[in-house]
Amino acid sequence: MQNAILHNKIAVWFSCGAASAVAAKLTLEKYGSTNDVRIINNPIAEEDKDNHRFLLDVQQWLGVEVEIATNKDYPNASCVEVWDKRKFMSGVAGAPCTLELKKRARQQWEERHRPDWHVLGFTLEEQKRHDRFTLTERANVIPILIEAGVTKNDCYSILHNNGIELPNIYKRGYPNANCIGCVKATSPTYWNLVREKDPDVFQDRAEQSRRIGAKLVRHKGERIFLDELPSDAKGRPLKSLDFECGIFCEEVA
Description:
The structure is a single chain. The chain is 42% helix and 11% strand. The chain has 253 residues and is α/β, with parallel strands linked by helices. The protein has a domain at 2-78 and 93-166: Rossmann fold (3-Layer(aba) Sandwich).
């Protein structure tokens, strides 16, 4: 059925990550001549600043403008502002920053533009995530990378072969292009990486989470405050699928 898509509006949600960049490219190649393909980004103030450079490089590669969509209630697109206003940072159901700055920003864009289909950066390894998303969120998703058999490592190679440098955050050891100090993370490995690479961010998260009462990290089976985390504490090695910040919000086991 998807091969026969004609004269539809397709929204590709570009997160400044490698997978969503390649998903946008493949969508344009497969459907761009017969459909209105729109590439949309929900910027986050707390992302690494090099994400914007990556967005511009990808935009040039795609040959189309990357649109910006923000929640009208949070024009600064700041997670810190969301946490302060909501007095909540993260829990088992996710994080309010993703709800306000990703999901609601996406919904407001949808209300104005009424897309027929959506494309996300689900790679071949993420078939189960795609299935869960289409079951719980919406069914009108084109699994462009899965259909093409593209893995996350393939995405890195495709960008490299096209002369596009990955966002700097990957080079610094972070598992994805989320904002720095992602409050959906509970791993002591992750938070001590933030402490090492971005000590000011770690301190800000520690102060705000203590003020709000959010125990963000799990150590020895117990939730604790960031300022209680030993600097040498480690959990499982970081993986790129541990936590993802897209138009959905979940933590993957």
